[in-house]
Write a structure and sequence with these properties.
With 393 residues, the chain is of the alpha/beta class. It is built from ten helices and 22 strands. The strands form four sheets. Strands 1, 2, 14, 15, 16, 17, 18, 19 and 20 form a nine-stranded mixed β-sheet that branches. Bound molecules: pyridoxal-5'-phosphate (PLP).
Length: 393
């Protein structure tokens, strides 16, 4: 890993034949600071979003030392980086061996679940431990999210009540959680989730010790420009107040994308141009998964070695380097019309769900990662004050 002042400096000095992944640690500092300054509770970083060691270390240095983990390997990874970090096993479906090792080998006390069977597994695997924090994850609509998680996770209202009663009996601390889905484009999803928790509280007459509003906070993409995050936070605060509980429970959130998306870029090289399709050297089996099936449109910037860039922008689609037809990214990616074979492109907003998705398929794996200190192509944090997401470049 080397450090460069800018994307241009990196490209001109390395002229890389392989895709190069870049991390801007300063952007992580900024996003963590935003959450620490504004969120009315505790922040857990969702490790799966980007488990790169540099990224995790920067998150810890910026003041967040609690993590939402979903596997034994994520637990081992964080434990190795910082053995004092507090870990929360927030996957609702875990194998018994993982639960057991998490509890006995790594001191993990907090577990999430959405069925009675999972509760039974947790109790059996921890020898009926008496010091558990149990989170009942309730199902809520993911209608405003780009990535829907609601079919896979969450207890339906009919099951949630019984589960909350059971978990109250078997836990030291009871939590209720939800997840609005990833890249949630409307703050109302959070108030709906909190109201849903309010219904459970009313019906069970049990007030939880912890309310966990999950992740889902959006980042900014060329075609997905959310309201400022501060509006989301204010909506959450207002709705929590509306619960009118005797004592407000501890509040936690589990952001992933909103913490790291802006910090990552991939620099790719154009291998061939066929009309408005560019064949590039990274793709959906590399760091660009979200640009494939999920069809995220990424901000793109052409980098040339002094050659004049055409002012006319054209909408391009990309093909990745592998032999699979699925290795296609529809875009539209807006780039100068005179782009051609040999040019480089910076693709932004790839700090989340990107680096971690790379495979070795067809031999195109690249592990070149460097640090940058210039600004990302887009940012949601640079002017929260003006209450609009905006383009830096
Ligand atoms: C993935 C995940 C998150 C992070 O979601 P983002 O949309 O990236 O903020 C948080 N909590 C849980 C349980 C998750 O599975």
């Amino acid at each position: 890993m080397r450090k460069f002042k800018s994307v241009n400096e990196l490209v001109n000095s390395l002229k890389p034949e392989y895709p190069v992944y870049c991390i801007r640690l300063n952007e992580i500092k900024k996003s963590v600071k935003f959450f620490k300054d504004n969120f009315p509770g505790k922040i857990l970083y969702a490790v799966k979003t980007n488990p790169n060691e540099k990224v995790i270390k920067q998150i810890i240095t910026s003041g967040v030392n609690e993590f939402d983990v979903a596997s034994l390997n994520e637990i081992k990874l964080i434990n190795k980086i910082n053995s004092k970090a507090k870990l929360h096993f927030m996957h609702t479906v875990k194998c018994k061996e993982s639960i057991s090792s998490a509890y006995f080998d790594y001191g993990v006390k907090s577990f999430s679940l959405d069925t009675k069977d999972e509760l039974r597994k947790i109790l059996e695997s921890t020898n009926q431990a008496k010091d558990l924090e149990l989170f009942v994850r309730i199902a809520i609509s993911n209608e405003h999210a780009e990535i829907d998680l609601s079919r896979k996770f969450g207890a339906l209202p009919s099951e949630a009540l019984g589960l909350v009663r059971l978990c109250k009996e078997h836990s030291k601390k009871l939590g209720i959680s939800f997840h609005v889905g990833s890249q949630c484009m409307h703050k109302i999803s959070y108030s709906k989730g909190i109201r849903e928790i309010g219904n459970v509280i009313k019906k069970t007459k049990i007030e939880p010790d912890i309310i966990n509003i999950g992740g889902g906070f959006p980042s900014i993409y060329p075609d997905l420009s959310p309201e400022p995050l501060i509006n989301y936070i204010n909506e959450i605060k207002r709705e929590l107040k509306n619960l009118k509980l005797s004592t407000l429970p501890e509040i936690i959130c589990e952001p992933g994308r909103a913490i790291v998306a802006e910090s990552g870029s991939t620099i790719v090289k154009v291998i061939l141009r066929k009309k408005n399709n560019l064949y590039i050297n990274d793709g959906t089996y590399g760091s660009l998964f979200d640009a494939g099936g999920p069809n995220f449109v990424l901000p793109s910037k052409m980098i040339t070695n002094g050659r004049i860039q055409s002012k006319k922008l054209t909408a391009f689609s990309f093909f990745g380097p592998t032999c699979d037809g699925l290795d296609f990214m529809k875009g539209p990616f807006l780039l100068p019309n005179n782009i051609r074979e040999g040019d480089y492109i910076e693709l932004g907003q790839l700090g989340a769900y990107s680096l971690t998705f790379r495979t070795n398929f067809n031999g195109f794996y690249s592990n070149e990662i460097h640090e940058l200190s210039d600004k990302p192509i887009m940012s949601l944090y640079d002017n929260q004050k003006d209450k609009v997401g905006f383009l830096v470049a």
